[in-house]
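Record format v2
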Amino acid sequence: SYELTQPPSVSVSPGQTASITCSGDKLGDKYASWYRQKPGQSPVLVIYQDTKRPSGIPERFSGSNSGNTATLTISGTQAMDEADYYCQAWDSSTVVFGGGTKLTVL
Amino acid sequence: QVQLHESGPGLVKPSGTLSLTCAVSGGSISSDSWWSWVRQPPGTGLEWIGEIYHRGSTNYNPSLKSRVTISVDTSKNQFSLKLTSVTAADTAVYYCARVPTLTQPFDYWGQGTLVTVSS
């Protein structure tokens, strides 16, 4: 079965750039999406089709996807960005989530 | 604005059947969308369970397929999940969510409901 691998945790200082990776076999041939989840809340879509931002998501969120790795980048990270982030892709007609990355803003 | 709301028992006995319903409001379940269930065990990540189209087509997570049934009731604008032979490992927050078309991302999520498997 298809798997997506994320680092368990990433730390960043306020105002700096945070990068969260998601790895999978030929992931660049698929569309990657990213979700943000804060404690006790439902996931929220922040990036879809590799690079697109839904309405209401700040411009500091961006994405890329090439080869075997998709990357979520948060520029000028703010304290409010501290959360768990999950990548997601489709493999045939099934959904696959990465294991999640806890972003800590120190 | 589509809204999703999960409901069902919060406690299920081991070896029993977990049953949940997701009510859809603000939109028709008969639209060209797929309706999914996703779960999240305490302190861990998201796991996709499966999805259904309003005409009844389904796709399931291979790891759960033998125990899962997802059905739709268009007259009530809702869809349901049944998971059989549950164990403590099935304890999780269960979310329903919408995919606008197949291979698109989840754009709407319910608030989630915690189901605990315990005697």
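Chain B has a mean pLDDT of 96.
The longest strand of chain B covers residues 18-25.
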